[in-house]
């Protein structure tokens, strides 16, 4: 898809002082320095897509697998814990392979949803648990015999992650988004001139998630799901018309093929609501 290719090219933080990686890595002269202190881009490191990472390591064994070689992955923060939806966790999405992996931390995660990242993953452990692929510090077993990954210490995050620019926002109509939803999953989109169907309600309540619908002037609507743990959960929803910027995601509660009915928009924070434009 054109949008994904544009995002892929914008993720070209893989050059150290103008020296390009070889192989399948895109070459670019427009390289900015990492904004996180102490992070070192490694031209000699193998660049893996998240799909390659999952294929390379046997993630379905009972034990975590430690990454012993210089390797890097890159992608987009598709979900974070800044608003309480996740706990000490971020989900990194690769728009090219359309695969995601979870990062486990031992403190609140500092980077916001929609940011692009490059990760040095040597020394981390890969683990598979409850259907999710996880990167973390090391494996441990609790007193109930359950295996987990310890979170990556906050003080080492700067050596693991590079915070890049926010990903570009694709402007779409609600009709376009619903017709081609699979092309937009885990991407930031902007839908103009919409409103909540029910405006006499709060975003969520009593730590329980709540589903809302926003609609456009043509009566097309899309689901917006809000966690009860969001900091703004008790506030009344945005009143009147607005432009909405959000992350497209899939929320599945049952088996079967994914359809547009499983699509939802994720709210990062209240700044994602902008005054309506023409």
Automatic annotation (TrEMBL):
Pfam families: DUF5689. It comes from the Bacteria. Residues 47-272 form the DUF5689 domain. InterPro entries: DUF5689. This is DUF5689 domain-containing protein. It comes from Fulvitalea axinellae.
């Amino acid at each position: 898809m054109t949008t994904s290719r544009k995002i892929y090219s914008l993720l070209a933080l893989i050059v150290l002082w103008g020296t390009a990686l070889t192989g399948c890595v895109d070459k670019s002269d427009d390289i900015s320095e990492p904004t996180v202190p102490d992070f070192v881009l490694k031209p000699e490191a193998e660049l893996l897509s998240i799909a390659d990472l999952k294929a390379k390591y046997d993630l379905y064994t009972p034990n975590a697998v430690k990454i012993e070689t210089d390797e890097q992955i890159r992608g987009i923060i598709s979900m974070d814990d800044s608003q309480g939806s996740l706990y000490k966790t971020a989900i990194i999405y690769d728009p090219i392979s359309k695969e995601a992996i979870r990062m486990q931390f031992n403190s609140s995660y500092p980077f916001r949803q929609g940011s692009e990242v490059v990760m040095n993953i040597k020394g981390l452990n890969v683990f598979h648990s409850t259907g999710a692929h996880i990167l973390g510090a090391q494996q441990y077993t609790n007193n109930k015999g359950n295996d987990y990954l310890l979170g990556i210490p906050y003080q080492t995050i700067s050596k693991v992650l590079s915070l890049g620019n926010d990903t570009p926002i694709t402007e779409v109509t609600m009709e376009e988004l619903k017709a081609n939803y699979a092309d937009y999953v885990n991407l930031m989109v902007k839908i103009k001139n919409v409103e909540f169907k029910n405006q006499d309600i709060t975003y969520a309540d009593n730590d329980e998630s709540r589903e809302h619908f926003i609609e456009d002037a043509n009566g097309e609507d899309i689901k917006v799901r809000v966690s009860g743990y969001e900091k703004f959960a008790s506030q009344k929803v945005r009143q009147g018309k607005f432009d909405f910027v959000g992350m497209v995601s899939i929320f599945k509660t049952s088996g079967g093929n994914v359809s547009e009915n499983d699509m939802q928009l994720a709210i990062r924070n209240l700044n994602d609501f902008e005054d309506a434009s023409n």
